[in-house]
Specification:
By secondary structure, the protein is α/β, with parallel strands linked by helices. It contains ten helices and 13 strands. The chain has two domains: 168 residues, Thiolase/Chalcone synthase (Peroxisomal Thiolase, Chain A, domain 1); 137 residues, Peroxisomal Thiolase, Chain A, domain 1 (3-Layer(aba) Sandwich). Helices cover 33% and strands 26% of the residues. The two termini are 16 Å apart. The structure holds acetyl coenzyme *A. The site of acetyl coenzyme *A has 25 residues, from helix 2, helix 6, helix 7 and strand 12.
């Protein structure tokens, strides 16, 4: 038995914070942010808007796209590093908000790689016959991890959620996944940092690591499926920085016309970034049945992961 994605959904808060608006409160500029990251704007959750609220909206949209009811879901995983509470988990809150049954629910923490890690877990559960369907969500409220006076980090992130419904299938939707982590350099990217409650990042080191690990993940996925980069219809890399995306795609020899880019309009939404981009490309008709879709993630931890999907 295999698993395949039957529907996707996403949610971005209505409040949009543009680069120019940000430049009024920190020493930065629209030109610098666009040139260095490709980001034009980010969405910021409202005061009463929780990570679970955003996750539940994306989840409902994914269920509608799959033509399924919440009661048909056998497992819920929410990938997040910004849960609202230590417990109940975000996933349990989503279960209640969407009206799912009392099925197993848990949060998964793997920073920006969380969605691909969660997809891999759900695929394993379905492939082993332990369940027939799963709801996988990536949801983040990164705005509360940021020091809004620190220009080197606050311009990079945003809030949002993306979701996918996985169902048991005779044909492989999920063809392969690979998961990695390296905990040997915890201070390069961490939250809270040693000195403050906020996210700390050594930008240059993260940039180099991100390109290296996205390429490694991509090569691993191609090899696992006996494919070359010419077989990839759509590459969906973690949406952190356009320069990271372009450098990785070039090294993997995937043409820019086959790369989904959404970082410009929502910045880095951590675990939500890949499902947000996936949902966009599915809804605008770029991703079609039979396409090979390669998801590549990298995040704090460090973590990195790949998933090859046949749509
Ligand atoms: N506006 C204007 N100037 C800025 C800003 C800003 N927002 N931020 C930093 N600068 C300045 C610095 O102070 C520095 O000035 P100086 O030369 O006078 O000292 C100059 O710009 C260059 O700073 P660097 O940090 O050396 O610039 P770099 O080339 O490394 O680019 C950037 C910075 C864009 C953050 C880059 O390092 C990067 O994208 N790194 C990866 C970040 C990322 O994707 N993180 C995701 C984390 S989680 C994950 O998804 C893996």
């Amino acid at each position: 038995m295999h698993s395949r994605i039957a529907g996707t959904g996403s949610y971005l808060p209505s409040r949009i914070l543009t680069n120019s608006e940000l430049a009024r409160s920190v020493d930065t500029s629209d030109e610098w942010i666009r040139a260095m990251t490709g980001i034009a704007q980010r969405h910021i959750a409202g005061d009463g808007e929780s990570t679970a609220d955003m996750a539940a909206i994306a989840a409902k949209e994914a269920l509608a796209a799959a033509g399924m009811r919440a009661a048909e879901i056998d497992l819920i995983i929410v990938a997040t590093i910004t849960p609202d509470l230590v417990f109940p988990t975000t996933a349990a809150t989503v279960q209640a908000q969407i009206g799912a049954r009392t099925v197993g629910c848990f949060d998964l923490s793997a920073a920006c790689s969380g969605f691909v890690f969660a997809l891999s877990m759900a695929d394993g559960m379905i492939a082993s016959g332990k369940c027939r369907s799963a709801l996988v969500v990536g949801a983040e409220r990164m705005s509360r991890l940021l020091d809004w006076t620190e220009r080197s980090t606050c311009v990079l992130f945003g809030d949002g959620a993306g979701a996918a419904v996985l169902v048991a299938s005779e044909r492989p939707g999920v063809r392969s996944t690979s998961l990695h982590a390296d905990g040997s350099t915890p201070d390069v990217l961490r939250a809270p940092s040693k000195r403050s409650p906020y996210l700390h990042m050594e930008g240059g080191a993260v940039f180099k690591f991100a390109v290296r690990s996205l390429v490694e993940g991509g090569q691993e996925a191609l090899q696992a499926n006996g494919m070359t980069s010419a077989d990839v219809d759509w590459l969906i890399p973690h949406q952190a920085n356009l320069r990271i995306i372009e450098a990785s795609a070039k090294k993997l020899q995937v043409d820019a016309s086959h790369v989904v880019v959404t970082v410009d309009h929502h910045a880095n939404t951590s675990a939500a970034s890949i499902p947000l981009a996936l949902d966009q490309a599915v809804r605008d008709g770029r991703i079609r049945r039979g396409h090979n879709v390669l998801l590549l993630s990298v995040g704090g931890g460090f973590t990195w992961a790949s998933c090859m999907l046949e749509w």
